[in-house]
Design a protein that fits this description.
The protein is an all-alpha fold. It has a single domain, classed as di-copper center containing domain from catechol oxidase. 31% of the residues lie in helices and 2% in strands. It has seven helices and two strands. The protein has a two-stranded parallel sheet. α1 packs across α3 and α3 crosses α7. The longest helix has 20 residues. The protein is globular and about 55 Å long.
């Protein structure tokens, strides 16, 4: 029977408590830091050599779907009742609304070091030391809304513009695509209209601090954000139905600069060895409320 992922704003006090406690427990066991390491290992950009399985390519959505499922499984080994909630950033848009409450993710970082000092993941609580990252920082940081250079969260209109595209992805299958649902949702912009970050990427920038870069998993907000992104893939599939297929269907041919750099629909996706096709329909595993 499929379990349910709920809007974080609809969680009961007990559901919030159980979710937070399960996160703290897998952190204590050392399991959580392995998720940070894995995300860092697959944070490959256009300008680097090798396969782009997790970002700047078609498999952005199935890769993170599987990543979420692994995190959820780890949480459920602690508490079988726990599922990953989602943060609807088109509705909960302030620095004090869900999920930035003391009984869920805690609040913004303080000035000037951006250290999170409230909630269960504050360094002073002693339960959330940062052990894996790209800097030597040991505490969780945030800069909600980017005080010195303000940025706004994406709107429903921004999200609808991505959902309206009938094609999953297009050549050259990277961060420069101006058409295709995947990049409109992932959010790499050309900068031509002075908007370099959209949707998924813009949310990472809005949260700031630890949510910037490959070690963004250090902020538990990562999971609530990506659950909402995953929900958009499901909504896109429902909207476009039979035409809603992962692309590319086949690997780029010889001589194509993207050959060996993107995952086709029936190619195995590292590190799990599953294909995007296998992750297109997860209705038997979970659903969204």
């Amino acid at each position: 029977m499929a379990y349910v992922r709920k809007n974080a704003g609809k969680l009961t006090r007990e559901e919030r408590r159980r979710f937070v406690n399960a996160l703290l427990e897998i952190k204590r066991r050392g399991v959580y830091d392995e998720f940070v390491r894995l995300h860092l290992a697959y944070y490959t950009a256009d300008g680097e050599e090798g396969l782009r399985a997790a970002h700047m390519g078609p498999s952005f959505l199935p890769w993170h779907r599987r990543f979420l499922l692994d995190l959820e499984a780890a949480l459920q080994r602690v508490d079988p009742s726990v599922t990953v909630p989602y943060w609807d950033w088109t509705r909960d848009r302030t620095t004090t609304s869900t999920p930035w409450t003391d009984d869920l993710l805690g609040g913004n970082g303080r000035s000037p070091d951006r250290q999170v000092v409230s909630g269960p993941f504050a360094h002073a609580q002693g339960h959330w030391p940062i052990r894996v990252g790209v800097t030597d920082g040991v505490f969780l940081t945030r800069d909600l809304g980017r005080a010195r250079d303000p940025i706004t969260l994406p709107t429903k209109k921004d999200l609808d513009a991505a959902l309206a595209d009938k094609v999953y992805d297009t050549s050259p299958w990277d961060s420069t695509c101006t058409t295709g649902f995947r990049n409109k949702l992932e959010g790499w912009g050309t900068g031509k209209d002075h908007v370099p970050w959209r949707n998924h990427n813009r949310v990472h920038r809005w949260v700031g601090g630890a949510m910037l870069g490959g070690a963004s998993v250090n902020d538990p907000a990562f999971w609530l954000h990506h659950a909402f992104v995953d929900l958009q893939w499901t909504r896109w599939q429902r909207r476009h139905k039979k035409s809603a297929r992962y692309l590319p269907a086949a690997a780029p041919g010889p001589g194509d600069e993207q050959r060996g750099r993107v995952v086709a629909r029936d190619e195995r996706m590292p590190p799990w060895g599953v294909t995007p096709r296998q992750l297109e329909d997860v209705s038997g595993i979970y659903r969204y409320a």
